[in-house]
Amino acid sequence: MSDKKREYYPDESPMSAREQAIDSVASSIGVFDEGLCEEMLGLGFDGDTAPFIGFIPMIQVAWADGVVDDKEQKKLRELATARGVEEGTKADEFLKGLITTRPTDEFFSKSNEIIRRILAKFPEDIQATELETLSDFCVAVAAASGGVMGMGNKISKEERELMRAIASELQTDQSIAGKDLLKKLTG
Q1: Residue 12 — φ and ψ, nearest 5°?
Q2: Cα 23 to Cα 30: distance, rounded to the nearest angstrom
Q3: Contact present, 76 and 68 (Cβ < 8 Å)
Q4: pLDDT by residue (tens digit) across 15-58?
Q5: How far is 129 from 59, CA to CA, in rounded Å?
Q6: DSSP letter at 14?
Q7: What whole-number distance in Å separates Cα of residue 170 and Cα of residue 4?
């Protein structure tokens, strides 16, 4: 139960473990949507790992060719560190697991749907900033191991097509930012 609920219902019985888990996820992502948090729990996220759901599209791009190579792993680690994932934490272990063992297509699809729903709850300017960052990070991961001897097109056709599909999945109904992201990845 959130502190706000406790304030209004101080005599309410203690929360169940499931309610605590939902509350932890909601608090960590700043979105209090019980159904959305339940879905995140069902995918393996918890209060420690939920803030990093935005890494799923990057991990999906890294898996585009069926393997996450050393350069892509290094880039993902670098980006995770930049976003506050500390070595040895639960979030770090969770992300490492997704990098070493390919998640299912269903996991990727459901995660992207959740990201879209989270973004839709925020103002357009925040959506734009988050989508721009996500786009830049996906491109950085895709470019990490591409090209021959550092030359040529660093992003494969498969990666580019996947990034377009992800951008389309993340586009909210009212999101100009999503449309801009789609244009950026098309060009």
Answers
A1: -65, 145
A2: 10
A3: yes
A4: 799 999 999 999 999 999 999 999 999 999 999 999 999 999 99
A5: 20
A6: P
A7: 31
CB-based contact 175:119 (threshold 8 Å) = yes
Distance CA 154, CA 172 (A): 29
Instruction: Report DSSP letters for 149-174, one per residue.
Output: TTBS--S-HHHHHHHHHHHHHH--TT
Rg of the chain over CA atoms, in angstroms? 18
CA–CA distance, 87 with 70 (Å, rounded to integer): 17
Written as six digits, the tokens of 50 are 């939920």
- The first and second tokens of residue 8, run together, are 């209004």
C-beta separation of 85 from 49 below 8 A: no
pTM over 0.85: no
